C-alpha cells in the first residue's frame, strides 16, 4: 500500500496566496473527491502537487511513501507514480498519441529496456476498444483537433496505459455529455483496486454517481474545511455551499454560482 500525504500546504501564484494550509492523506485502494466553490484552490492543489513552476509552494510538504516530492522535477514525480489528468489537455502537433504514450511508458522503465512495440500496440488497442476510441486516434497528433470528450478519453487512455500509483483528475467530467462521462468513469473504475488511488476534483455530483468516492473533502478559502462520505457530496448538490459555510462560521464570499 502506498500513501500520498499532503501536509500544511501553502501555495501562491503571482504573489497571491491561494492555498492556506491544505492537509490530505490518500492511500492506494481509495478514491477521494474534492469539491468546493469556484476560486477556492482545487486546481491550484493539483498543479502544485504535480510541480507546475507557476505555482510557488511557500510552506508544507507533499510526500509519496515518505519521499518529499516538492524537491523533485515534474518528470521525476511522474516516475515516482503520480499522474495528472488535466482540465484542459494541451494539443501537441507533430507527436502522435501512440508515440507520446510509449515514450511515457519507456521513461518509467529501466534505461535501455523499452516496452516491445508489439506488446505496447496490443495493450494500447485493447484499452482504446475498452474506451470506445477509434483505432486511428492512435496515430493522430496528441489532442490536436480533438473534441473536448475525445481529449478527456485520451487522458483516461494514458492513465490506463501508465498505471500510476495515484491519479489526480482535475475536472475530468467538465463539458462531457452523459455517454462520454460513462466511458471516462468506466476507465477510472477499471483501475480501482489495491495498487491505485485517485483524487478527483469536481464541481458536480454526477461524476460521483459513476465513480463513488470513499471520501469527500470540501475546500473553501484555500483549506479543507469538511470531510465525509458520498452523502456529503449529495448534500452539497442539494443545498449548495452557503449553508455549510455558515454552519462552519467561515467568513468566505461565494459567487452566485456557488450558493
Automatic annotation (TrEMBL):
<keyword id="KW-0547">Nucleotide-binding</keyword>
<dbReference type="Pfam" id="PF00005">
    <property type="entry name" value="ABC_tran"/>
</dbReference>
<dbReference type="InterPro" id="IPR003593">
    <property type="entry name" value="AAA+_ATPase"/>
</dbReference>
<dbReference type="InterPro" id="IPR017871">
    <property type="entry name" value="ABC_transporter-like_CS"/>
</dbReference>
<protein>
    <submittedName>
        <fullName>ATP-binding protein involved in Fe/S cluster assembly</fullName>
    </submittedName>
</protein>
<dbReference type="InterPro" id="IPR027417">
    <property type="entry name" value="P-loop_NTPase"/>
</dbReference>
<feature type="domain" description="ABC transporter">
    <location>
        <begin position="4"/>
        <end position="246"/>
    </location>
</feature>
<keyword id="KW-0067">ATP-binding</keyword>
<dbReference type="InterPro" id="IPR003439">
    <property type="entry name" value="ABC_transporter-like_ATP-bd"/>
</dbReference>
<dbReference type="GO" id="GO:0005524">
    <property type="term" value="F:ATP binding"/>
</dbReference>
<comment type="similarity">
    <text>Belongs to the ABC transporter superfamily. Ycf16 family.</text>
</comment>
<dbReference type="GO" id="GO:0016887">
    <property type="term" value="F:ATP hydrolysis activity"/>
</dbReference>
<dbReference type="InterPro" id="IPR010230">
    <property type="entry name" value="FeS-cluster_ATPase_SufC"/>
</dbReference>
Amino acid at each position: 500500500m502506498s500513501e500520498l500525504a499532503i501536509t500544511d500546504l501553502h501555495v501562491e501564484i503571482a504573489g497571491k496566496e491561494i492555498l492556506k494550509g491544505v492537509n490530505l492523506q490518500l492511500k492506494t485502494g481509495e478514491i477521494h473527491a474534492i469539491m468546493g466553490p469556484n476560486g477556492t484552490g482545487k486546481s491550484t492543489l493539483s498543479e502544485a502537487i504535480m510541480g507546475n513552476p507557476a505555482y510557488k509552494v511557500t510552506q508544507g510538504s507533499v510526500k509519496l511513501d515518505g519521499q518529499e516530492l516538492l524537491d523533485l522535477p515534474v518528470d521525476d514525480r511522474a516516475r515516482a507514480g503520480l499522474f495528472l489528468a488535466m482540465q484542459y489537455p494541451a494539443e501537441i502537433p507533430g507527436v502522435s498519441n501512440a508515440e507520446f504514450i510509449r515514450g511515457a511508458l519507456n521513461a518509467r522503465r529501466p534505461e535501455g529496456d523499452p516496452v516491445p512495440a508489439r506488446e505496447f500496440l496490443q495493450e494500447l488497442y485493447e484499452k482504446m476498444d475498452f474506451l470506445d476510441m477509434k483505432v486511428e486516434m492512435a496515430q493522430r497528433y496528441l489532442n490536436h483537433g480533438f473534441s473536448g470528450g475525445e481529449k478527456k478519453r485520451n487522458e483516461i487512455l494514458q492513465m490506463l496505459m501508465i498505471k500510476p500509483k495515484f491519479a489526480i483528475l482535475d475536472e475530468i467530467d467538465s463539458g462531457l455529455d452523459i455517454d462520454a462521462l460513462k466511458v471516462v468513469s468506466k476507465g477510472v473504475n477499471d483501475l480501482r483496486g489495491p495498487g491505485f488511488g485517485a483524487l478527483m476534483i469536481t464541481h458536480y455530483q454526477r461524476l460521483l454517481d459513476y465513480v463513488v468516492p470513499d471520501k469527500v473533502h470540501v475546500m473553501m478559502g484555500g483549506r479543507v474545511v469538511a470531510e465525509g462520505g458520498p452523502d456529503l457530496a449529495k448534500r452539497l448538490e442539494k443545498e449548495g455551499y452557503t449553508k455549510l459555510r455558515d454552519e462552519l462560521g467561515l467568513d468566505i464570499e461565494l459567487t452566485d454560482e456557488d450558493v
